[in-house]
Write a structure and sequence with these properties.
Blueprint lengths: L1 H16 L5 E10 L5 H15 L4 E4 L6 E3 L11 H12 L6 E6 L8 E4 L4 H4 L7 E5 L9 H9 L40 H8 L4 E2 L2
The protein binds zinc ion (ZN).
Length: 210
């Protein structure tokens, strides 16, 4: 009897969370000249939507390939290089809706992606870009969580040098442990999107009612 009650309760919860149209997280994808973007594109979209679905949210983006920008070569996280790449996105699309997600080649071989926030003068110089993300096509995170992980970063205020990750719950998508790249063998850990991050995303500058 206990088993039946538990499964019924679980089913009811599932129905309740799906009521209403999903909140849309609006993205605009860009690609540098040398980005192997197809390697990441569908896995990170599918992986992202899998994480968002229990919270009645989903990714929304224009159909077709990412918008090409004329940048070639590895991108350093500092020295104004991300900002220079971001400026090329602005030139390609002066007025866009949503957050720019740029497929590019990061200099650091071990970076899945990186978020650059308003106030990060090392990355942006003196331009106050709203937060944007670069996804490095050198490696694919086998948990397929990189996109949502980076979007969570955008919802937290910029604080120089502060590690804002969750280091307590290894199944939290915002916990960097347990993520393997396509270049490394070994186990990955199943990740979930905890409610507190989902609620942050629901209030993000790129979130829209469905
Ligand atoms: Zn992170």
């Amino acid at each position: 009897m206990a088993d039946l009650r538990e499964s019924h309760r679980f089913a009811s919860k599932g129905v309740i969370t799906m009521v209403g149209k999903p909140t849309l997280l609006k993205l605009v994808f860009f690609k540098t000249t040398d980005a192997d973007w197809k390697k990441l594109y569908q896995p990170l979209i599918d992986g992202g939507n899998d994480l968002l679905k229990p919270h009645n949210m989903k990714l929304s983006f224009p159909a077709g390939d990412p918008i090409g920008i004329p940048h070639q070569g590895p991108i350093n996280s500092r020295a104004g290089e991300p900002g220079a790449v971001r400026y090329k996105c602005h030139q390609a699309l002066p007025v866009g809706v949503g957050i720019p997600i740029i497929f590019g080649v990061m200099e650091d071989d071990n970076i899945f992606g990186e978020t650059f926030k308003t106030g990060n003068v090392n990355a942006n110089g003196d331009v106050g870009w709203p937060p944007y993300c670069i996804l490095s096509t050198k490696i694919l995170n086998r948990t397929r969580t990189t996109l949502v992980h980076e979007l969570i970063h955008t919802t937290l205020p910029y604080r120089e040098g502060v590690d804002e990750h969750d280091h307590t719950d290894v199944s939290d998508v915002f916990n960097p442990a347990g993520a393997g790249s396509d270049k490394k063998d070994g186990q990955t850990i199943k990740k979930v999107l905890p409610k507190r991050w989902a609620e942050n995303l629901r209030r993000a500058y790129f979130a829209y009612p469905g």
